[in-house]
Amino acid sequence: MNLRRLFTLILLAVTGKQIQAQSPDWAEKIAPILYTNCSGCHIEGGIAPMSFTGYEAAKTYAYSIKGATQSKSMPPWPADPQYRRMAHEKLLSAQEIQDISDWVDAGMPSGDTTKAPAAPSPKTGSSILNANLKLKMPDYKVKTSNDEYRCFVLPTGLSADKFLTEIEVVPGNYSVVHHVLVFHDTSKVPLQLDSADPNPGYLGFGGTGSSTSKMIGVWVPGQDPFQMPPGMGIKLEKNGYIILQVHYPANIQDVTDSSKVYLKYSSSALREVGIAPALNHIAPSLQNGPLYIPANQKKDFTSKYTVPIDISIFAVAPHMHLIGQKIKAFGVVKPGDTNKFISIPQWDFHWQRTYTFTKVQKIPSGTVLWGNASYDNTSGNPLNPNKPPKAVSLGEATTDEMMLVYFWYTLYQNGDENMVLDTTQPKNLSHTNSFATHSIVGFPNPAGEIYHLRGVTNEKDRLNYQLFNVAGKLIPCSWKWNGEEVEFDIRNLAAGNYYLKISGIGFTKNMALIKL
Ligand code: HEC
Questions:
Q1: Residue 86 has pLDDT above 90, yes or no
Q2: How far apart are CA 241 and CA 302, in angstroms?
């Protein structure tokens, strides 16, 4: 033990009482954390089922907030920060997680509420200043029993080529827009598909149904506008279309959406950015194809691409469908010199985003890019759309699979590797906890009669379930295993907010549950 640490320990021993008395309060410690990191989604009308605005709301969900932040399932950030740190990460620091935990353990003190930051208001417009194009899809009345992926075709009206420098999607209705892929196309195919469908837009999952569509953006809740590095842009050819492919989740009744996309472009030519799935599911990239996962099997695939010329890359976005489990991409510049790009240890189709590097990366000619992806086509995978499992092969449908790693790239120029894309100081994360995401899914929420828990299949014999009310009182409840998921019968539960504590060996997760 060094002297400094000893000193800290002594100080702690002496001032222990005081530290106790100074446990973080909501007004000055917790509200800033929640408003900055959670309110993008946990707000009235937001994508998350409950709002954390105000002291009462934070207190109501305190135990779940503590659980979700300790398990690192919230905020949702599927990329593993221990593999590579990214620009503009949406992650809590070890200290913030500790502050939340201390606050809950101290009985959720409010502190002087006049010192709390102003309550955030729901986002309505774009954060892009002076956007050149604002395109709005027609009003669409969403009515789903299953997940729906709908493509809306929006002509750009551009009579000359432009270079896209910034893009942001603004959902018309945050509570039903789960994620959006943005494409650009100049062929007539999307228009034809659109006119063949009686409703606004047309159905399409994965791609747009047109082989010439190029992806120009990805939006998931909480994603900021996407910016190209200075002097670079994606070419938007004249007379083209933007295609917004919107994912509406299941069980929506007559909610109207009218999402918008904001684009900023340069009229003078910039260094052209391409977005290419350099690692992909087709030979020669796919090393052990075809991409085929027999029913009840888990399979791993490897892709490879040798970079033929010096390039610079600045963002990466992996893409798989529903039974994808994990995916990783890295570049071997030469033996012993590996550039780790991204690792997603627990893939979730619903939280795919684009990750920007903190600096532009030079990828010298001859670098071998590698991608490793794993798929789980067993009934133990809660996100398997087929029950019982069916063989899955390459394709665009929900129930097909893909393996793509998109790279945002341009031709290398001297000095690119010095371009910094995020000037903020990275947060100090605790390295002892591993990242965990949404492997356990509870639905519906709010629930009236039966609350289902998926993703606990393999652990069903080892897990304990305890239901608590907001005062922390244990509430008796019964559950049963239905062969696929755990079902809680909550018919006799009083209406209100609860949290369900799921615990196993070295594992706890608190799920917020709202009883109607
Ligand atoms: C990008 C959007 C987004 C952000 C940011 C976000 N959440 Fe969530 N959160 C959701 C959604 C959506 C759900 C609903 C369940 C799901 O999809 O997993 C949810 C569910 C939850 C739940 C209940 C389920 C569980 O996992 O225990 C808690 C608690 C929670 N969030 C806490 C937080 C906290 C605390 C923060 C900030 C530190 C935060 N969330 C940030 C979108 C978000």
A1: yes
A2: 34
Calpha distance 280→486 (Å, rounded):
36
pTM: 0.83
CA atoms of 475 and 481, how far apart (whole Å): 19
| Mean pLDDT, residues 359-373 | 98
Which pLDDT band holds residue 56 (cuts at 50, 70, 90)? Answer: very high
Ligand 1 pocket at CB < 6 A: 37-38, 40-42, 47-49, 61, 64-65, 67-69, 73-76, 92, 221-222, 438, 510-512
Average pLDDT over all residues of the chain: 88
Secondary structure of residue 513 in the 3-state scheme: strand
Percent of the chain with pLDDT over 90: 59
CB 217 within 8 A of CB 234: no
**pLDDT of 297-326, one tens digit each?**
999 999 999 999 999 999 999 999 889 999
Same-domain pairing of 294 and 207: no
Q: Ligand 1 centroid to 56 CA: how many Å?
A: 17
Distance 42 CA to ligand 1 centre (A): 7
Give the CA distances from residue 215 to residues 49, 176, 264, in Å, rounded to whole numbers and listed in that order: 30, 22, 16
- Is the residue at 9 inside a domain? no
Question: Do 129 and 108 belong to one domain?
Answer: no
pLDDT number for residue 432: 46
For residue 78, the CA-to-ligand 1 centroid distance in Å is 13
Q: Measuring CA to CA, how many Å separate 425 from each of 38, 85, 87, 93?
A: 20, 11, 10, 12
Q: Which of 398, 426, 454 is the last residue of a domain?
A: 426
Domain enclosing residue 407, as ranges: 272-426
Regarding whether 50 and 66 lie in a shared domain, the answer is: yes
Q: How many A from CA of 38 to the centre of ligand 1? A: 7
Indicate the number of domains in the chain: 4
The better pLDDT of the pair 35, 66 is held by 35
Model pLDDT, residue 54: 97
What was the pLDDT predicted at 441?
Answer: 74
**Atom 12 of ligand 1: nearest residue by CA position:** 48
- Same-domain status, 94 and 131: no
